[in-house]
Amino acid sequence: RWVGPDGPWRKLICEILDELEPEIEAIRDESDFDQMAVNLVKQKLKNISVPSPNDKKRLWSLLKRHGFESSSINAAISKINFTEE
User: Fold this and answer.
1) HSE value, Cβ hemisphere, 13 Å, CA-based, for 7
2) pLDDT digits (tens, 9 = 90+) for 21-38
3) Please, which contacts does 50-54 make with residues 24 or more away whose CB atoms are closer than 8 Å?
């Protein structure tokens, strides 16, 4: 009953999230996540002369695990020329 849809914990969590949302948006506005993703991709590919489609999948997974959103991942990966198998 404490964590159900109408439980007191849910209400508390929603209130906390409402308070954090403006701070999260401010961080998003201050940070260039697309460029961060590009930098990470460049770092990971620096020793690979011709990246393969498997490298593309690995990069996608890596960026997802690091918390990047799909738009930033697409921005980073679209700049790379991958070989075709």
Assistant:
1) 8
2) 888 888 877 888 889 999
3) 50/83, 51/80, 51/81, 51/82, 51/83, 52/82, 52/83, 52/85, 53/82, 53/83, 53/84, 53/85
Asked if 85 contacts 56 with a C-beta cutoff of 8 angstroms, the reply is: no
d(CA 25, CA 40): 22
Are 41 and 64 in contact by the 8 Å Cβ rule? The answer is no
> How far apart (Å, rounded) are the C-alpha atoms in residues 79 and 74?
9
* pLDDT over threshold 90, residue 62: yes
